Amino acid sequence: MYRAKNRNDHSIVVAIKVIDKRNLDEDELKDTMMEVEFLQSVDHPNIVRYHETYDDERYLYLIMENCPGGELFDSLEQFEKNGEPYTEEMAAEIIQKILLAL
User: Fold this and answer.
1) Three-state SS string across 20-65, please?
2) Is 32:60 a contact under the CB 8 Å cutoff?
3) How many Å apart are CA 33 and CA 28, to the nearest integer?
4) Taking Cα atoms as reference points, which of 33, 59, 60, 39 lies closest to residue 51?
């Protein structure tokens, strides 16, 4: 995941998710495109805002709202690495901390 600023308005910061298509099989590529379609169709304050997609022969570039608190999935991986349980209550607590930091 990368962060970028709009060239014309530096106050606009986006996240760019770069996906190497060579690492995806056909089903994974379809799943990724379904995720894009889903993000295009929703507008909710608790779901990251999707802006647009670019792609070339090798990569997909998903341009999305920047969420400075990081991805909730990253915290799940950290708990699993430490052998700790990861409950819904823990996820809610992490989200609350992220929202308070904004």
Assistant:
1) EHHHCCHHHHHHHHHHHHHHHHCCCCCCCCEEEEEECCCEEEEEEE
2) yes
3) 9
4) 39
Q: Please check whether residue 14 is in contact with residue 66, taking contact to mean a CB–CB distance below 8 angstroms.
A: yes
What's the pLDDT tens digit per position in 3-36?
A: 899 889 988 899 999 999 999 999 999 998 888 8
Judge if pTM exceeds 0.70.
Answer: no
Using the predicted structure, report yes or no on whether residue 49 has a pLDDT greater than 70: yes
Domain 1-67: which topology?
Phosphorylase Kinase; domain 1 (3.30.200)
What are the domain boundaries of the chain? Answer: 1-67, 68-102
